[in-house]
Design a protein that fits this description.
- By secondary structure, this protein is of the alpha/beta class.
- It has two domains: 31 residues; 188 residues, TIM Barrel.
- The chain has eight helices and nine strands.
- Strands 2, 3, 4, 7 and 8 form a five-stranded parallel β-sheet that branches. A two-stranded antiparallel sheet has the order 1-9. The protein has a two-stranded parallel ribbon with strand order 5-6.
- Helix 2 packs parallel to helix 7 and helix 6 packs parallel to helix 7.
- It is globular.
């Protein structure tokens, strides 16, 4: 028994050393590094765009009951109207990110207009939370790395997209995500549709039952 325990400790130490070596190498190259699965297996990030909205409160309650953290990429024009939800997101440990002020394709705007969309949203969030915004999900995934905004944000896209905005079929949304989710995935949903919220909570229940761990996107992407 002691020999097995000693061997397990040795393997864990070797895994840790290997992870640190790989991390430092990829960090020097400026890569986004997926979180290691040595310590957690089946790690996924649940993300929501376009809110807050009238269904966000129901979603937040459901996530709190399940002890699950998510990432919310909010629209600046909605923030003031749903200040209580922004504060609840913060209190519950969710990540709050930037989704522009009015849901525009940033790569279709000139630099000044694009940066204004980003800045106004950061200011709206920070005025409520008192904390800096660090992540942005550009609408439609459209983003120009050449934008010389005063704010340096990390771009977050996605790997699993059930296109919940295009259907009211909860089963279809759930089946797509559950069938395709794997370790390190970032799942895209929207908290402005009742069907998406219902699907999201079912997705959480099913993936939890399969041993998945839900984290915020900053834990998936280590800068």
């Amino acid at each position: 028994m002691l020999k097995r325990l000693f061997a397990a400790c040795i393997m864990l130490c070797l895994d840790l050393i290997l992870f640190v070596v790989i991390y430092e190498d990829r960090k020097d190259k400026g890569d986004n590094i997926p979180v290691t699965t040595t310590f957690y297996e089946n790690v996924v990030a649940l993300t929501f765009d376009d809110g807050p909205g009238i269904y966000t409160g129901e979603l937040l309650e459901g996530l709190r009951e399940r002890g699950v953290k998510a990432s919310f990429f909010v629209l600046g024009e909605r923030v003031d109207c749903y200040e209580e939800y922004i504060l609840q997101m913060q209190a519950d440990g969710h990540l709050i990110g930037n989704h522009t002020f009015s849901h525009v394709k940033l790569d279709t705007l000139n630099d000044e207009a694009a940066c204004d969309e980003v800045r106004r949203t950061c200011e709206a969030i920070e005025n409520i939370t008192g904390e800096s915004v660090k992540y942005i999900r550009p609408p439609y995934g459209a983003y120009s790395d050449k934008l010389e905004c005063a704010i340096n944000l990390t771009k977050v896209l996605w790997t699993v997209d059930p296109q919940d905005w295009n259907t009211t079929d909860v089963d279809k949304i759930v089946n797509h995500v559950v069938s395709n989710a794997k370790d390190g995935d970032i799942i895209l949903l929207h908290d402005i549709y009742s069907t998406s919220v219902a699907a999201a909570l079912r997705i959480v229940d099913e993936l939890l039952a399969r041993g998945y761990v839900f984290v915020t996107v900053d834990e998936i992407l280590i800068e």
